[in-house]
């Protein structure tokens, strides 16, 4: 065999056995190739989202690096004007001409789509003003993402392209959807506000994992099979208010957001055991009912206006959030010992001794909170405490010694007393509100590593001896105060 050929074969075999990182380092250490890589990277960064006039592109020195073009005139667009590097073309509100092809098209177009208008390699199509009938050949088979826009409200009479992964039906859409219209490849569907049609079993393909009615007025009763047993994330919009019976929500669902209007008792097995995250969107006036012992995240976004009975919250819940008010006090054993993070939104909520379990690590009170806090009412397990609207006053041992991160809210403006900030506290945040009181030496614990003051804080008596030497991060939102402190001895 020829010696040169043998050497070439050996070189090829060496390359085959080298690790990718070794090959990269060989290329990177070559000065010429290194400079070319850096130059190309910079050009891609500088010109990938270039806003130039379409008439200027031909003479643009780096047009082969342009990947996005914004087209904002109402004139026909010729394909030869677009560089081959371009993958996304954005048509602004002025454009309403016949379209040409690219991989991604986002526009205000509103003309009928005939076969071939959109080439077969388009992957994403987003409309805004489009409201034309779709025929069998209107959309290319290459389409992966389709957003029909806020104005679309035409019957879907022919199947959407097989291969489609995501579909968004916008604000105006309110047409029946027949079985077989949505392809078996689709995984994500979002349906807009106006949709109010019966959803029969089999209409939503069994490939769908994410189904969101967004802010929809949808309130047609669901039957078993309406939601396929593939859906993991189910959001029931704003209006759905029918009792949930067994198997309406399939046992594939992990995250369930009930609608803002939903107000029914949940009986046993109505929420599947697969569910780990449950959100009540608005005011809820019924007893909680029976929830599966698999839920870890439970959130009430509206007013919660009834007593919480012991064991009504599953002992699997680790995060419990009440966004707004509830008008009954918490009693012992109301909150299960599994809860590690608790957020209370009530303005008058009173924390009673022994009402909160010793499992809680993070406790957050709302900005509306306006009650006193009694010593020993917060469990010794709490490490992170956000006081929300707490106004004070501070008394000795008001906070447990376990606190490591303490945040005061917008309305707090009370003097800090010696012993009021726990000795283990590492982060003290006073930056959110109106706090403006002198801080004497020895008031702040030597455990602090981070200290923040708000824009209202301005105390010329503050000296460097007032701030523990342990503080690494010191922040003043008041620029005048910052300059004064930095210039002080």
From TrEMBL:
Q: Where are the transmembrane segments?
A: none
Q: Which InterPro entries match?
A: FNIP, LRR_dom_sf, STK_FNIP-Repeat
Keyword list, A-Z:
Repeat
Q: Which Pfam families match?
A: FNIP
The record ties this protein, via PANTHER family, to: FNIP REPEAT-CONTAINING PROTEIN, FNIP REPEAT-CONTAINING PROTEIN-RELATED
Name it.
FNIP repeat-containing protein
């Amino acid at each position: 065999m020829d010696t040169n050929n043998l050497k070439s074969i050996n070189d090829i075999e060496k390359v085959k056995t080298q690790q990718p990182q070794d090959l990269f380092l060989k290329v990177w250490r070559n000065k010429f190739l290194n400079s070319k890589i850096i130059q190309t990277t910079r050009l891609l960064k500088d010109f990938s989202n270039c806003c130039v006039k379409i008439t200027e592109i031909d003479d643009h020195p780096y047009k082969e690096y342009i990947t996005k073009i914004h087209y904002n005139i109402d004139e026909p667009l010729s394909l030869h004007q677009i560089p081959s590097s371009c993958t996304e073309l954005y048509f602004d509100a002025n454009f309403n001409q016949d379209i040409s092809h690219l991989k991604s098209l986002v526009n205000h177009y509103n003309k009928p789509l005939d076969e071939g208008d959109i080439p077969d390699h388009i992957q994403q199509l987003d409309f805004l003003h489009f409201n034309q009938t779709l025929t069998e050949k209107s959309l290319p088979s290459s389409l992966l993402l389709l957003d029909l826009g806020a104005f679309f409200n035409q019957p879907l009479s022919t199947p959407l392209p097989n291969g489609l992964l995501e579909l968004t039906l916008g604000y105006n859409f309110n047409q029946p959807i027949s079985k077989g219209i949505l392809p078996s490849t689709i995984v994500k569907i979002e349906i807009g506000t106006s949709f109010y049609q019966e959803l029969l079993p089999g209409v939503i393909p069994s490939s769908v994992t994410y189904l969101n009615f967004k802010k929809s007025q949808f309130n047609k009763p669901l039957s078993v099979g309406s939601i396929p047993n593939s859906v993991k994330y189910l959001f029931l919009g704003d209006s759905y208010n029918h009792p949930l019976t067994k198997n309406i929500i399939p046992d594939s669902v992990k995250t369930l957001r009930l609608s803002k209007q939903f107000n029914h008792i949940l009986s046993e097995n109505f929420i599947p055991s697969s569910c780990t995250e449950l959100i009540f969107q608005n005011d809820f006036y019924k007893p909680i009912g029976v929830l599966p012992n698999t839920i870890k995240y439970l959130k009430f976004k509206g007013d919660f206006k009834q007593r919480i009975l012991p064991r009504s919250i599953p002992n699997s819940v680790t995060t419990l959030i009440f966004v707004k008010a509830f008008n009954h006090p918490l009693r012992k054993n109301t909150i299960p010992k599994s809860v590690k993070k608790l957020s209370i939104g009530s303005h008058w909520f009173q924390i009673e001794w022994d009402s909160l379990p010793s499992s809680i690590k993070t406790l957050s009170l709302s900005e509306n909170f306006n009650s006193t806090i009694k010593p020993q009412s917060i469990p010794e397990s709490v490490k992170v405490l956000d006081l929300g609207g707490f106004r004070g006053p501070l008394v000795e041992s008001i906070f447990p010694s376990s606190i490591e991160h303490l945040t005061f809210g917008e309305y707090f403006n009370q003097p800090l007393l010696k012993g009021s900030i726990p000795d283990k506290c590492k982060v003290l945040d006073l930056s959110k509100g109106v706090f403006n009181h002198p801080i004497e030496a020895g008031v702040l614990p030597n455990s602090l590593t981070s200290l923040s003051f708000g824009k209202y804080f301005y105390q010329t008596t503050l000296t460097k001896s007032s701030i523990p030497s342990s503080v690494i991060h010191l922040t003043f939102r008041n620029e005048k105060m910052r300059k004064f402190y930095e210039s002080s001895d």
